[in-house]
Design a protein that fits this description.
Number of helices: 35
Distance between the termini: 41 Å
GO molecular function: nuclear export signal receptor activity
Protein name: Exportin-7/Ran-binding protein 17 TPR repeats domain-containing protein
Structural class: mainly alpha
Number of strands: 0
Radius of gyration: 31 Å
Keywords: Cytoplasm, Nucleus, Protein transport, Transport
Pfam family, one: TPR_XPO7
InterPro entries: ARM-like (IPR011989), ARM-type_fold (IPR016024), TPR_XPO7/RBP17 (IPR057947), XPO4/7-like (IPR044189)
Helix content: 55-70%
């Protein structure tokens, strides 16, 4: 039986059920179960991957159902659509969501299934059913019905153009009802919060194409979009007090959801921007004034202060979002001036909050400020920004920030303030360092940054005394994860240093001095390893911090001169220290992974930085160090007990092996080593490294090799390199090893959804 026949059979059964709905006992398990399975059958037909492109059936990103042309008859007359709208009306809440889910798929059938006339007719049938639901919304009180209906609304625009929507029968009534439904839904922020995404997606897609619509019919979006924007903003502000007083889950804690909604709001809010900006200025001024009054009254309760901070957090997030939604071709001087008004207010608020950080601050508000800075940076800081923008004019008038360098100084001062006072907050530190990293990338902005006194201070004083998050003496295992921020920090510092470094070895040595001191301390600690005086925890933290710091510097140093200064600094004085520590804590991945990643970075010939002179042995010396690390770590990890629990296997063993594979691949393909030298002089570095690779590979099951994407990607990349440049080694492998490798290639080629390129 063909799938279309199965679909028709299911629809036929549902049609009979709809006609007999008054006689069906929904409390009867058999009758209820039959309807459930029939609806599921039709839904499965509609969600079938007809062209074999979807690897994730749960994704909502693919909004087009590639219905075959042979199915056209089922969708042309509108009876199938009417059947499922009738089923939604007739069935109880335990079944009706599935009817709506089928409608979501039907509304998403590919456009090319119809000609223009048929498509308009089909869209009219969909819209008619939607309007009936909006006119009689009682069924939407069920969260599942509500969620599926929001999905259906979103599909109206994802699959049809605004020019087509405005031509449907009684469009003004439709858009009015959708706007009312959206506003009411946003105000009921606690009810099905995951559905808000679909409503915002609808409005985002409605307003985005407005400049290009050529239809003569009015779209009325200028009337209703500001209402949606206002409803979102005011509902978020009103939620703060309820969340804090009732101890509810705070939407601001879900950073992913907040970012997604703000991305959608950035487009919606920029439409009729004058109204959006007027509303934001009014709300911001009111809330900022109340916040100042609360702070000036010692008797004001901490709860009230927290409420004001929560409301301001939302406003700062939203202001950042609408500024980030600026599109150059659609912006005017008036819009830029409005942006300037908003920016001035946020910076004034920041001055107030930063002045209170010595006595503690509000983490949510500071995260919002960082989000704002990131959006402002993307739009108004950088090489492509017009410096005559009205934003800068307004900043000059209100805050005296007359040029980009002065604005950058505000960024850097905020970054330094956060690093000084928020050392115990990983979320703020990581977001702050990401902002610093982003600033250090731009060609013109980074050259302005290095001229700032604050940046020179960072380059000359990157110690825990000035930046507490760099401290390794904190007690508590949880803080080990904080140390990973250090790589981002030193990558940014390395880029800033590179701007004017040239061949100035004295300046390089001065920059590396804090790391040299830490290495000396680590060497002294490791010398006591066999004595009761040995401080293992401090030693581990010091090593982890140094490995992450050096990896950041190595990543930033992407020129031949700078890399050579770093290599000669680290080898041989400090590589031996790390090798010893790696052997000492070989079964502690929190220690081994940062060290392995450091050596992997050192082996990367990024931007052709590893171009050694013909008389230089450094390429060979570097490979020998990589080989020592690989063999030293690999030989010990192979002794690990085979009884490692499955949920710990990747962290304890496979992650380290994955990094080793990446490291070896980088060293083999870097084109800076003549590998014939090793055999000529009887040096076993290459042979030992390749033998260790084989042993590590055989210690991994084929299923594990494919179950972990990072491991499989590093393995296949290394295998490609070996097959390309080291075929004698591959051809001399033992038969069992060769068969194992061929089996992994076969499995990799047939693995569903694999992204690896296998040779």
């Amino acid at each position: 039986m063909q799938l279309f026949e199965i679909f028709q059979l299911g629809c036929g059964l549902l049609k009979k059920a709809c006609e007999m709905v008054k006689t069906i006992d929904f409390n009867d398990a058999d009758q209820h179960g039959l309807l459930t399975h029939t609806l599921q059958l039709v839904h499965n037909c509609l969600t079938f991957d007809f062209i074999g492109t979807s690897t994730d059936e749960s994704s909502d990103d693919l909004c087009t159902v590639q219905i075959p042309t042979q199915w056209r008859s089922a969708f042309l007359d509108g009876s199938t659509l009417k059947l499922f709208f009738d089923l939604y009306t007739s069935l109880p809440p335990s079944l009706s969501p599935m009817a709506l889910s089928c409608l979501v798929q039907m509304a998403s059938v590919r456009r090319s299934l119809f000609n223009n006339t048929e498509r308009a007719k089909f869209l009219n049938h969909v819209v008619l059913g939607v309007k009936v639901i909006l006119q009689n919304p009682q069924g939407l009180a069920d969260p599942n019905n509500y969620h599926e209906f929001c999905r259906l609304l979103a599909r109206l625009k994802s699959n049809y153009q605004l020019g087509e929507l405005v031509k449907v029968d009684d469009y003004p009534d439709l858009i009015m009802r959708i706007a009312e439904f959206t506003v009411n839904s946003l105000q009921m922020w606690q009810f099905s919060p995951n559905s808000v995404h679909y409503l915002l997606s609808l409005w985002q897609r409605l307003v985005a194409p407005v400049p290009y619509v050529k239809a003569t019919e009015p779209h009325l979006l200028e009337t209703y979009t500001p209402e949606v924007t206002k409803a979102y903003i005011t509902s978020r502000l009103e939620s703060v007090a309820v969340v804090l007083r009732d101890g509810l889950e705070d939407p601001l804690d879900d950073q992913g959801m907040v970012a997604q909604q703000l991305d959608q709001l950035s487009t919606i809010g920029r439409y009729e921007y004058k109204k959006t900006c007027t509303l934001l200025v009014q709300l911001f001024d009111e809330n900022a004034q109340r916040y100042q009054e609360a702070l000036s009254h010692p008797t004001c309760s901490p709860l009230n202060v927290s409420i004001h901070e929560g409301r301001l957090s939302w406003l700062v997030y939203i202001i950042g979002a609408v500024i980030g939604g600026r599109v150059s071709f659609a912006s005017t001087d008036e819009h830029d001036e409005m942006d300037g008004e908003l920016v001035c207010r946020v910076l004034q608020l920041m001055n107030l909050t930063d002045s209170r950080l010595e006595n503690g601050g509000c983490q949510k508000l500071d995260l919002a400020l960082l989000s704002f800075f990131e959006q402002f940076r993307k739009i108004y800081v950088g090489d492509q920004v017009q410096k005559t923008s009205r934003v800068y004019r307004r900043l000059s008038e209100v805050l005296g920030l007359s040029c980009e360098s002065m604005v950058l100084s505000v960024f850097i001062q905020k970054i330094i303030t956060n690093l000084k006072y928020w050392g115990s907050s990983e979320s703020i530190i990581s977001r702050t360092l990401q902002l610093l990293s982003d600033l250090s990338v731009g060609y013109s902005s980074v050259r302005k940054l290095v001229k700032l006194d604050a940046v020179q201070f960072m380059l000359n004083n990157h110690t825990s005394q000035h930046f507490p998050f760099l401290s390794v003496t904190s007690v508590g295992q949880a803080q080990l994860s904080d140390l990973r921020c250090r790589t981002t920090f030193y990558t940014a510092l390395g880029r800033l240093l590179m701007v004017e470094l040239g061949e100035d070895e004295e300046r390089f040595e001065r920059f590396m001095m804090p790391l040299a001191v830490s290495f000396e301390n680590l060497g002294n600690l490791l010398s006591q390893v066999d004595t009761p005086m040995f401080r293992a925890e401090e030693s581990k933290r010091t090593l982890i911090g140094l490995a992450r710091d050096l990896r950041g510097v190595a990543f930033a140093f992407n020129t031949k001169v700078s890399y050579m200064m770093l290599f000669e600094w680290v080898y041989p004085a400090y590589t031996s220290v790390m090798l010893r520590a790696l052997q000492l804590w070989c079964h502690e991945p929190c220690v081994t992974t940062p060290v392995l990643k450091l050596f992997s970075e050192l082996a990367q010939n990024r931007s052709q930085r590893l171009q050694f002179d013909v008389s230089s042995p450094n390429g060979i010396l570097l490979f020998r160090e990589v080989s020592k690390v690989l063999v030293g770590y690999g030989s010990r990890i192979l002794t690990m007990s085979p009884d490692v629990p499955k949920d710990q296997l990747y962290a304890m063993k496979l992650k380290g092996i994955s990094v080793c594979f990446s490291m070896l691949k980088a060293a083999l393909s870097g084109n800076y080593v003549n590998f014939g030298v090793f055999r000529l002089y009887g040096d076993g570095a290459l042979e030992n490294a390749l033998d260790t690779f084989v042993k590590l590979l055989l210690s991994i099951s084929q299923s594990d090799l494919l179950d972990y994407p990072k491991l499989s990607q590093s393995y296949y990349a290394l295998l490609e390199c070996l097959a390309q440049d080291h075929m004698p080694f591959v051809s001399n492998l033992e038969p069992r090893v060769f068969f194992y490798i061929m089996a992994t290639i076969s499995e990799g080629l047939t693995a569903l959804g694999t992204t690896e390129a296998v040779m």
